[in-house]
Amino acid sequence: MRRSVGVVLLAVPLVLALAGPWLAGAPEPRGVSFAAVPPLGTDFVGRDVWEQVLLGGRSVVTVAVLATALAYAAGVPLGMAAALAGRRWVDELLMRPLDLLLAVPSLLLLIMLAGLFSPGPAVLVGIVALIGMPEVVRISRAAALEAASSTAMEALRLQGETWWRRAIGYAGRSMLTTLLADVGVRLVGALYLVASASFLGVGLAPDAADWAVMVDRNRTGMFLQPWAVLVPALLIVALSVGLNLTFDRARRR
Questions:
Q1: How far is residue 158 CA from its own chain's centroid?
Q2: Who has the most CB within 10 Å: 40, 72, 121, 194?
Q3: What is the pLDDT of residues 28-44, one digit of tens each?
């Protein structure tokens, strides 16, 4: 039952996000703001809410996935290098700057970095990846240290295996279970940051077709036309919960 709920909660927003732009069709002419016309009424500038829902999911999902992938692409090699270099100064050199990033609250860091660059999806991907990377590095380092201290690693070292063979062939494979279990958490965290950035008006234009932007811009008419806020908000919640349940199930298996 729990598995079915997780799949449904994940599938519905994903299908809308990925297939929505093709299903939306040609833009409808704008009407009256917050009008209660079928199926979901209009938004704060008179656009059809259902059309905006179909168009607004791809940016949220794409930015979160790309930011997570970029954080892992940069963080995993750094974590492995810190754990397997065999030199304490290398570990300190790599980890201490990342500890400074971890000390700053993620939302504050998001706002500070976004203020330095022009808004756009590419900038938002880079910022969210930078915020998530220190935690990826720490998790990768911990997993690599566990593999490095094992008897199997010592046996490979005594057999004269190369560093790359020991680091990639053994430690890398040993880390996969830990990293796969962490992917779900990182994706949800990236989704949270992307939605928060859009809600705060950071990274995307204020009239962009985006679920989080819809929640922010339409909340002034919540009591006139609630669907413009409730539908995108529920889709973001469903995507987050569905990701958690699905990856939790995958981790246990």
A1: 41
A2: 194
A3: 788 888 888 878 888 88
